[in-house]
Amino acid sequence: MELRQLHYFLTVAEELHFGRAAKRLQMTQPPLSQQIQQLENELGVLLFKRTKRHVELTKAGTTFFEGVTRTLEQLNQTIDSTQRAQRGEIGKLEVGFVGSATYDILPPLIREYQNQYPNVELKLQELSTPNQINELDHKKLDIGYVRPPIQGDAITSEIIHETPCILALPKHHPLTKEKEIQVSMLQNQPFIVVSRTIWPELYDDIVSLCRNEGFSLQIKQEATEYQTVIGLIAAGIGIAVVPASMQNYSVKDVVYREITDAKLTAKMAIAYQKDSLTPEAINFIKLIRKLK
Question: What is the 3-state secondary structure of 129-193?
């Protein structure tokens, strides 16, 4: 039994006329009749009652018609789902992110991706950069929003966003009264920093900035994410250089100022295993590039 025979049968059953059915199928009537006879012989049942003027389904033919109709509908749905899966329109996508990504670039991207691909199950995990790289290495994440630089032979990364850095201070800190804050004014100030193991590039940039002004960075406290840094600043523990996007993280008793002679920037990258990207991940990356 061939799929085309089932299509032939359905067409004849719908038209109840071999001539009209043959015309719909763009074939002549004798080959169509032969195909129906072969189908009946294979099934061992009579599907149609035929006279010179009339064609109708037998009881067996009616049962077969109903079953074939359901089967072909399911087959068409399966074919459609298969093609949509190939295009990345259905499936699952695992995305990791550092917490600070939620203050600027991640929310609009997630909204747009879900608008365009509502049938993809999107799973988000907040993880530090090292933990994301580990998850990517073990193929537990498809894409990671990470802080560069990235280490790992199998991992590909690309910078997708860069934002200036500013100074965050407790509300009543003496430096908040200054019209301009320069790097030299940060000497002997207690700093809160994100650990170098979490964000080595920015950590090293801040240390170098102070060293170039002739003093060492006075680290009072280390943290793993900038949400924690801001909370410690609000508690009066110290000051910090933070990405400007952290101003969107509204916390009472924290104020922000520009460092006029510093050109520090915070970079965000995406990381992934290039050789094992799913269609869903490819679509996600295309959207990232479009929106950045």
Answer: HHHHHHHHHCCCCCEEEECCCCCCCCCEEEEEEEEEEEEEEECCCHHHHCCCECHHHHCCCEEEE
DSSP conformation class of 259: B
* Cα 208 to Cα 142: distance, rounded to the nearest angstrom: 34
User: Measuring CA to CA, how many Å separate 220 from each of 9, 62, 63, 186, 187?
Assistant: 81, 83, 81, 13, 13
Domains with residue ranges and CATH for the chain: 3-86 (1.10.10.10), 91-159+268-291 (3.40.190.10), 164-265 (3.40.190.10)
Return averaged pLDDT per consecutive 10 residues of the chain, 292 residues in all: 91 93 94 94 94 89 94 90 88 94 91 96 94 94 93 87 94 94 96 93 94 95 92 96 90 94 93 93 95 85
Gap between the Cα atoms of 12 and 196, Å rounded: 74
